[in-house]
Design the sequence.
């Protein structure tokens, strides 16, 4: 796993991705609170976007360079090496 001391730029990128997740979730929550409803298809797209960010975060947790175009799609997929808890 990267860290801020040894790989500051990569660490900052990881934190930026997490911040994107927070912003998207905040927006989704606000949208749902204001409307009192949400279409399932819109909900699926919004959550899919959040999952893609989380998946890229997980897959790039040890990568010290930026994600390449070739890696983008693969890194956006659900992890096979992460087990849900709870």
Sequence:
């Amino acid at each position: 796993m990267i860290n801020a001391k040894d790989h500051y730029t990569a660490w900052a990128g990881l934190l930026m991705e997490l911040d994107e997740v927070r912003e998207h979730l905040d927006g989704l929550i606000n949208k749902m609170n204001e409307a009192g409803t949400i279409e399932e298809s819109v909900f699926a797209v919004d959550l899919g976007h959040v999952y893609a960010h989380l998946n890229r975060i997980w897959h790039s947790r040890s990568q010290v360079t930026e994600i390449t175009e070739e890696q983008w799609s693969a890194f956006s997929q659900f992890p096979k090496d992460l087990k849900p808890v709870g």
Observations:
- DSSP finds three helices and no strands in the chain.
- The chain has a mean pLDDT of 96.
- The two ends are 23 Å apart (CA to CA).
- Residues 8-75 form one domain.
